[in-house]
Protein backbone atom coordinates (compact mmCIF):
# COMPACT_ATOMS: atom_id res chain seq x y z
CA UNK A 1 0.00 0.00 0.00
CA UNK A 2 2.78 2.42 0.86
CA UNK A 3 4.38 1.82 -2.53
CA UNK A 4 1.08 2.58 -4.30
CA UNK A 5 0.70 5.84 -2.39
CA UNK A 6 4.34 6.74 -3.07
CA UNK A 7 3.69 6.01 -6.76
CA UNK A 8 0.77 8.45 -6.75
CA UNK A 9 2.95 11.09 -5.13
CA UNK A 10 5.70 10.59 -7.70
CA UNK A 11 3.26 10.63 -10.60
CA UNK A 12 1.85 13.99 -9.51
CA UNK A 13 5.33 15.43 -8.85
CA UNK A 14 6.52 14.33 -12.31
CA UNK A 15 3.52 15.92 -14.05
CA UNK A 16 3.29 19.30 -12.32
CA UNK A 17 5.42 21.53 -10.13
CA UNK A 18 4.58 21.04 -6.46
CA UNK A 19 6.32 22.08 -3.27
CA UNK A 20 4.68 19.43 -1.06
CA UNK A 21 2.15 16.60 -1.22
CA UNK A 22 0.35 14.91 1.66
CA UNK A 23 -1.59 11.72 0.95
CA UNK A 24 -3.87 10.36 3.65
CA UNK A 25 -5.48 6.92 3.34
CA UNK A 26 -8.96 7.22 4.87
CA UNK A 27 -10.12 3.79 3.66
CA UNK A 28 -10.48 2.34 7.16
CA UNK A 29 -12.97 5.09 8.07
CA UNK A 30 -15.30 3.89 5.32
CA UNK A 31 -15.50 0.17 6.09
CA UNK A 32 -19.08 -0.82 6.62
CA UNK A 33 -20.43 1.90 4.37
CA UNK A 34 -22.88 0.68 1.74
CA UNK A 35 -20.63 1.64 -1.20
CA UNK A 36 -17.35 0.43 0.36
CA UNK A 37 -15.35 -1.78 -1.97
CA UNK A 38 -12.59 -3.95 -0.55
CA UNK A 39 -9.28 -3.16 -2.24
CA UNK A 40 -10.37 0.30 -3.38
CA UNK A 41 -8.98 3.30 -1.55
CA UNK A 42 -10.49 6.44 -0.08
CA UNK A 43 -7.72 9.04 -0.31
CA UNK A 44 -7.30 12.64 0.70
CA UNK A 45 -4.56 14.41 -1.21
CA UNK A 46 -3.32 17.83 -0.16
CA UNK A 47 -1.16 19.46 -2.81
CA UNK A 48 0.88 22.60 -2.24
CA UNK A 49 1.49 24.06 -5.69
CA UNK A 50 1.76 27.62 -6.94
CA UNK A 51 0.98 26.32 -10.43
CA UNK A 52 -2.31 24.71 -9.37
CA UNK A 53 -3.19 27.74 -7.24
CA UNK A 54 -2.85 29.89 -10.38
CA UNK A 55 -5.66 27.89 -12.02
CA UNK A 56 -9.29 28.11 -11.03
CA UNK A 57 -10.35 25.37 -8.61
CA UNK A 58 -12.19 23.24 -11.17
CA UNK A 59 -9.33 23.31 -13.69
CA UNK A 60 -6.79 22.47 -10.99
CA UNK A 61 -8.84 19.50 -9.84
CA UNK A 62 -9.37 18.31 -13.43
CA UNK A 63 -5.61 18.45 -13.98
CA UNK A 64 -4.96 16.20 -10.98
CA UNK A 65 -7.81 13.85 -11.92
CA UNK A 66 -6.35 13.49 -15.42
CA UNK A 67 -2.93 12.63 -13.95
CA UNK A 68 -4.53 9.92 -11.79
CA UNK A 69 -6.96 8.70 -14.44
CA UNK A 70 -5.81 5.06 -14.39
CA UNK A 71 -5.60 4.88 -10.60
CA UNK A 72 -9.14 6.24 -10.33
CA UNK A 73 -10.41 3.49 -12.64
CA UNK A 74 -8.55 0.68 -10.91
CA UNK A 75 -7.65 1.43 -7.29
CA UNK A 76 -9.29 4.58 -5.95
CA UNK A 77 -12.96 4.64 -4.96
CA UNK A 78 -13.05 8.14 -3.48
CA UNK A 79 -10.68 11.08 -3.79
CA UNK A 80 -10.74 14.29 -1.79
CA UNK A 81 -8.44 16.97 -3.21
CA UNK A 82 -7.27 20.05 -1.41
CA UNK A 83 -5.02 22.49 -3.24
CA UNK A 84 -3.02 25.03 -1.28
Q: How does this model look, in words?
A:
The protein is globular, with a radius of gyration of 13 Å. 43% of the residues lie in helices and 26% in strands. It has helices at residues 2-15, 50-54, 57-67, 69-74, and strands at residues 20-25, 41-48, 76-83.
Short description:
43% of the residues lie in helices and 26% in strands.
Global morphology: globular
Provide the residue-averaged pLDDT: 89
Order of SSEs: HEEHHHE
Strand sequence of the main sheet, in spatial order?
1-2-3
Helical fraction equals 40-55%
Beta content comes to 25-35%
- Specify Rg, calculated over alpha carbons: 13 Å
Structural class: alpha+beta
Q: Which residues sit in consecutive blocks of at least 5 with pLDDT less than 50?
A: none
* Strand runs, count: 3
Distance between the termini: 25 Å
Instruction: List the total number of helices.
Output: 4
- How does the major sheet shape up? 3 strands, mixed
Amino acid sequence: MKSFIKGIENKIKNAIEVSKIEIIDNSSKHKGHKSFQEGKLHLKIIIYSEYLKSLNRVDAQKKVMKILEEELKENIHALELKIN
